[in-house]
Amino acid sequence: MARDIDSFRGGNYSGRDARLFNEWEMIDRRYQDDDQCEYIIRKRNVANLPIMYDIVFNVKTITGVEPPDEQGLQRPIFGKEHTMRITLPNNYPGSDGKPEFMFITEVWHPNIRYFGDFKGRVCLNPNDRSVYTPLVEYIDTVISFLTYEDYHAENEYPYPEDLEVAEWVLNQAEPQGWLSFEQD
User: Fold this and answer.
1) Are 184 and 78 in contact (CB under 8 A)?
2) Beta bridge partners of 54
3) Residue 2: its pLDDT value, please?
4) Residues 178, 181, 64, CA angle at the centre, nearest 5°?
5) Which residues of the chain register pLDDT less than 50?
6) What is the reported pTM?
7) CB neighbour burial string for 166-178, b if at least 16 within 10 angstroms, e if fewer
């Protein structure tokens, strides 16, 4: 059975539509048979090309913390399936049209907003990246966030997205060794 993208191959795309198709093709190629990650197209433009994706990650990560115990420690709570939405604005891929990355499921990571407004927002420092940075590079960075191979918790540039989670990482998770967890 042909995949959805196969019917779009060979199309005569230019400008933004060419970029949208190339992004889709890279995402499809990278994650079509990946156990850690899959994608769902949530919205398309008038040319029927994706402008909104849900990326479903099947990796173990921290989704929250338990209430403090007698010693004041808040142990991590783990989950295995997490969904992030990528929205490509009308002016994508222009320098003022950065993609938006938001988790729609709970993730506890200093570079993902857990508390307050914009809960779920992922800080991928798009201003430090080129407009040519492919979406798969951002997605791979998020995988490294979820597995805690990559995180920034120090209150210095590039700054954590969630200071409360960052404080927990520095004061509890790192000293207790909770960030070195095995993938099931």
Assistant:
1) no
2) 40, 85
3) 42
4) 60
5) 1-2
6) 0.93
7) bebbeebbeeeeb
83/91 Cα distance (integer angstroms): 24
Instruction: Say which amino acid occupies 166.
Output: A
**Which contiguous run of DSSP H or E holds residue 39?**
strand 37-44
Residue type, 176: Q
Distance CA 176, CA 153 (A): 15
Q: Report whether 166 contacts 160 (CB < 8 A).
A: yes
DSSP letter at 109 equals: B
Give the integer Cα–Cα distance in Å for 5 and 23: 11
Residue 1: the pLDDT is 33
Identity (one letter) of the amino acid at 112?
I
* Residues facing 37 on adjacent strands: 57
Burial class of residue 22 (count of CB atoms within 10 Å of its CB; 0-12, 13-18, 19+): middle
The pair of structure tokens assigned to 93 is 């891929």
Place of tokens 């019917």: 7
Query: How many residues does this entry show for the chain?
Result: 184
Contacts of 130 by beta carbon, 8 Å cutoff, 6+ apart = none
CATH H-level superfamily of 14-176: Ubiquitin Conjugating Enzyme (3.10.110.10)
Bridge partner residues of 83 (DSSP) = 56
